[in-house]
Every structure is written in structure tokens, then in C-alpha cells.
Amino acid sequence: MESKKTVLVSGGAGYIGSHTAVELINAGYEVVIIDNLSNSEESAVEGVRKITGKDVPFEIVDTCDKEALRKVFEKYGFDTVIHFAAYKAVGESMAEPLKYYSNNLVSFMNIVEMMKEFNRPNILFSSSATVYGEADELPVTEDTPRKPATSPYGNTKQMSEDILHDCCRAYEGMYGIALRYFNPIGAHPSALIGELPRGVPNNLVPFVTQTAAGIRECLSVFGNDYDTPDGTCLRDYIDVVDLAKAHVAAVNRMVSDKMEAKYEIFNVGTGNPVSVLELLTTFEKVNNLKLPYKIVDRRPGDVTAVWADTAKANDVLGWKAERTLGETLKSAWEWEKRVRGL
Ligand code: UFG
């Protein structure tokens, strides 16, 4: 394995991690996946292997376990890590803040510490548009000031960005990129990997596909009295395969020594605001079905609108979202049908 061409993917059995592993392999990288399977299934790794035809190495490792992580660093040569492994439910983080702080921060600090100890240069971190909160300007650019986080989950994203920034500044030879994801949706066109939420989904699209599959009776639209064209919230829904390709572009930049600063941030979105009702209508249209839904109260903590200015990712990474909302929502439904055997 050539170290520049090898990438460690923590959380690689998860939703975004598994899609990124596929795109890295398609781009000629070797991938090593680690995951503790706390919120994912080994079947996702099987999916990655099936799609790529590669026997991708996989180890069940909890990134909070520093000794286990050290063994991974001893065993595999890689210059780059993409750190996905984290808890991600906003509501749960409000109820169990310590679980979020200890898991998300300890695991990330362990990764950074091992990168330093083993002189491995490149750290790519999964951040989130949640760091912008209710932004004063839209679309948000990477320079739009972050707002104080409204959940422990959001706080761990902000703190991890700061940890990465500080460490890249302090340690010679350490480089970092934070990708701020907007709302990732959809699944791989093969329908072999996709999102596998446990229990009742919190996010819109898994709830939509489960409602279409008859698992949920009715979708609740959280509020139609926002200050937006149709009264429902606006988000920037980014296709998960497009998002995965943004990681490849960021890794390419890191391994070819093209970074202009030791720490860089990129928004990863489409640049298009889409309302909840628009998303539902598009889902119905492209999949030729009707979705039962009702308007209910606002969900506490939801921001009215957030979407990305993608100029920096477009210009600097040479990356652009390609799949249309319709294609993405079709892939989400194909995946749900496959999982449910419909
Ligand atoms: N929504 C509904 N009904 C549902 C679920 C969601 O109407 O059953 C609405 C929400 O009110 C919101 C939109 O659909 O307007 C999107 O909600 P999601 O829960 O899918 O996504 P969020 O924008 O709330 O959160 C997502 C990620 C977070 C991340 C955040 C960053 O899930 O991890 O984006 O903005 F922090």
C-alpha cells in the first residue's frame, strides 16, 4: 500500500462513510475502514465491497479506545484519515450531553493524537452546517460567523473544528480540512448502500421513505408559518454520492500538497434552498406515489433557513453537486424498497 494513496475511514460502515469509501476506491485510493458498529451494520462494508469489487479491509474498532486505534496505525500505512465516527442525533444530544461530548470529542482527539504520534499528515473532518445556526446572511459562506451551538451535538462539531484548527497551527506537518455538510440525502444508485436509521427517524427523508413504505402512518411537517415562500423551512439537500465525491476532491488536494493554509473549511451543499413541501412534492412526482402528511407545530431548535454558498468548493476543490433533487429522491426510495424487500 502506498501511504499517499491509502485512506483510513473511521465510521466507514455509516451512511456518509460507506458512500465515501466507494468513491475513494473508484478514484484509485486504497481504503481501510474502522467502525464500532454502534449505529451501523457490517452489511454496509459488504455493500462497499460488492460495489467496488475490492476486498476492503475492515476492523471493528472504537475510536474512543486509544490502544485499539494505535494498533490500526501500527498495522496500516496511510497519510490521510477521514473521521466520520460520531453520534449525530441532535435531540438525543440534548437528553444525553455527556454521551455526545465524551464520544465525539474523545474519539476525535484520539485520531488527532495518533496522527501526530505516527507523523501522518492529513486529517479530514466531518463537520456540519449546524455550526452556522440561524445565520445573519444567506447563503452562508465559509466566512459567515458561526453562531453559538444550540445543541451538544452542534457544540461537538464546533469544538472539533477548533481542535483541528489549533492542532494544525501548532504541529508541523499536520494539515486539516473541515467539510461542512448541509443536509445529506439519498443512496447509492446500486441500492446496495444507503441510510439505515435505527428506530424512528429524526431526519426528513428517511421519515418520508418509511412513510411511503407504510412503516409510518403519516409524515408530520414541522411548521408552515415560517418566513419562507411556502411557510416551511428551507434546507440545502445534498446527494450523498455528490457529498462523497467532495471528500475525494478534498483528499486529492491534501495528498497533492495543494493546500494554501494548514487548515481549510469548505461548505458542501448544492447552493439551492428547497422547502419541506417542495421536497415532498418532488418525492411524490419522481416516484409516482402519494404521501400522507399533516402540518404540525414547529420542531424546537429548527432554523428557518440555511443553504450554502458553494463557490469555494466549486473553485478551489473543483467539485460541484451533480445529481438533481429528483434523482436523489428516487435513489432514496429505491434503497428503502430494497431494505424492506418491496
Ligand atoms: N422535518 C419535518 N418532518 C420530519 C423531519 C423533518 O417537517 O419528520 C423538517 C424539519 O423541520 C426541517 C427539515 O425537515 O425543516 C429538515 O430536517 P432534518 O431533521 O432532516 O434536518 P435538519 O436540517 O434539522 O438537520 C440536519 C442534520 C443535522 C445537522 C443539521 C445542520 O440532521 O445533523 O442538518 O443544519 F446538524
What would a concise description of this structure say?
The protein is an alpha/beta fold and 342 residues long.
* Largest sheet, spatial ordering of strands: 3-2-1-4-5-6-11
Overall spatial form: globular
Instruction: Name the ligand types.
Output: uridine-5'-diphosphate-4-deoxy-4-fluoro-alpha-D-galactose
Largest sheet: 7 strands, parallel
Radius of gyration: 19 Å
Q: What does this protein structure show overall?
A:
It is a single chain. This protein is 41% helix and 16% strand. It has helices spanning 15-26, 42-52, 66-75, 90-95, 97-117, 152-170, 204-212, 240-255, 276-287, 311-317, 325-340, and strands spanning 6-10, 30-35, 58-60, 80-83, 122-128, 175-181, 183-185, 219-222, 234-235, 237-239, 263-268, 274-275, 293-296. By secondary structure, the protein is of the alpha/beta class. The strands form 4 sheets. The chain has a 7-stranded parallel sheet with strand order 3-2-1-4-5-6-11, with helices on both faces. Strands 7-10 form a two-stranded parallel sheet. A two-stranded parallel ribbon has the order 8-13. It contains 11 helices and 13 strands. The structure holds uridine-5'-diphosphate-4-deoxy-4-fluoro-alpha-D-galactose (UFG). Uridine-5'-diphosphate-4-deoxy-4-fluoro-alpha-D-galactose is lined by residues 88, 90, 128-130, 183, 202-204, 207, 219-222, 233, 235, 276, 299, 302, 306.
